[in-house]
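Data card: per-record layout.
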Amino acid sequence: MSEVVAVVPARGGSKGIARKNLQRVGGVPLVARAVDAARRCPAIDRVVVTTDDRDIAAVAAEWGAEVIERPADLSGDEASSESAVLHALDTLEARRVDVGVVAFLQATSPFIDGEALGSAVQLVRSRRRDSVFSAVETYGFLWEKGAGGAAEAVNHDVDVRPRRQDRAPHYLETGAFYVFRAAGFRASRHRFFGSIGIAEVSPRTAIEIDTAEELEIARTLAPLLDRATPVAADAVVTDFDGVHTDDTVRVDQDGVESVTVSRSDGMGVSLLRAAGIPFLILSTEANPVVSARARKLGVEVRQAAVEKAAVLREWAEGRGIPLSRIAFLGNDVNDLPCLELVGWPIAVPDAHPRVLSAARVVLDRPGGDGAVRDLAERVLAAHTAREHPDVNPAHQPGRQATASGHPIAPQEAS
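The structure for this 414-residue chain is written out next.
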């Protein structure tokens, strides 16, 4: 039986944003978000990423996609997406894969609507449509600049201004996905052919990233649109100040410093240790308070870490833990290099705005008041779900969703 195959073209070069397909939104690389959206769609049988870039290929494979190496002549600025999809189909045919329907997904659309994607696949597979694309409904009055820059109406009569309810809508492509019959695509060599249908999606998901400004907008939207998930990490690394504490310190007349920590956090660390999950406190400061807390918790600590990301990388390599399987919990800008390095960048809710933007998950509890326990419960929920698939992680403690929207799945180790 023929398959429904999702194809994600993701070349390494980009003029507008350097390494665009590896840029993170909600703590997840754009190419990984596209792969995840496709894998979550029950109507899709196989997910393929076609790329000329080694790093993109590694991320795609880690997130469960097959990788097709795209030749250089199909990877330049002038190469069309259609040419990349055609090459992918030829490669799959050589691998004896019978492709009946293609779902062409663009990684530059970070909030792909999985339900709409599945409906589009069904429209094409049932042959009710030959090609279907994602679009948003619009009642906007469109204009263009004519000769000499004068404005000219496109979709309306300038002398008639009907009310919204008296007008028929138009539809604007979002660029998120295009679904079509493979045979018809091969014949036409274009994504639009035959009977064309529209898969309507919500405007809030419709952003397409071509500029640095749009990337920042997407990062701002991610906490609102991505649903909280269990944190499928194999190790936990945390900052200390602002994470285990409320980021304040008390100093007595002799200059002795003290901080307040949470017993609940201590229990969270204890539960992680009992589950065999490595835990590290990584701090820029060299403070006896940090050492004392680490001893009390029975965990490793690295202090005076000027280059925290380098220390984190060395610690992970020493333990044989992939960086993609590490959760790092931070709160301030000096944590950004670590957050950008790991698969699970986590932030406390009162973190610096740049940290919140970089986070894949923002916790419900603040630093010094249950943040570490919150993270521990999310990690343990993911482990429970992996070991006992019949247990719904949504029923585990700490499983509040930040908003209804488009979840990012925890990935299992390959």
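Known properties of this structure: Residues 371-387 form the longest helix (17 residues). The CA atoms of residues 385 and 391 lie 6 Å apart.

See the next section for split statistics.
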